[in-house]
Design goal:
Length: 158
């Protein structure tokens, strides 16, 4: 029995490490969302990482009555750098929306200062506050844009 203990300890330790990484987001996530989280965790290595509450939120953002996934990297802590995915342009936000085939597509993958979801002119929309340079201005200048759901993605055209 003592000879087997060294084999089980690493396995149990690995399982605890995986469980703790997901402890803040207990819901099952689609594979494309899990892959994005794994990529962020790998970018953080060799530092430890922590997924704070509300790193993952679910909300129907495209109006199809299916929960979509929003990853807020302001809530992803990497080692001693609590703002690893943030800067003057805001924090990385990823939005995965449900599509017709039951899969999820990446609809937003950029740093934003603020992200809101609303219905505008009868359509689902993302309201983004961006770094001024996204509008051809200096960084501190306001830069707001609205992206409308067109049935396949969010785009600037209404």
């Amino acid at each position: 029995m003592c000879r087997m203990l060294p084999v089980f300890v690493p396995v149990i330790g690995s399982l605890l490490l995986v469980a703790s990484a997901w402890a803040q987001s207990p819901e099952d996530v689609p594979s494309v969302v899990a892959a994005a989280i794994t990529e962020a965790q790998q970018a953080c290595e060799p530092e430890s990482h922590k997924l704070e509450p509300d790193f993952i939120t679910q909300k129907d953002v495209n109006g199809d009555k299916v929960q979509d996934y929003i990853l807020d990297y302001d809530k992803f802590k990497c080692g001693d750098n609590p703002n690893f995915f943030c800067g003057t342009a805001g924090c990385l936000m990823q939005v995965f929306v449900s599509v017709d085939d039951g899969e999820y597509a990446l609809a937003l993958d950029q740093n934003v200062r603020r992200l809101q979801f609303k219905w505008v002119k009868g359509r689902p929309a993302m309201l983004l506050s961006l770094h001024g340079s996204a509008c051809g201005r200096v960084g501190a200048a306001p830069c707001n844009t609205t992206l409308y759901w067109n049935g396949a993605t969010f785009s600037p055209a209404n």
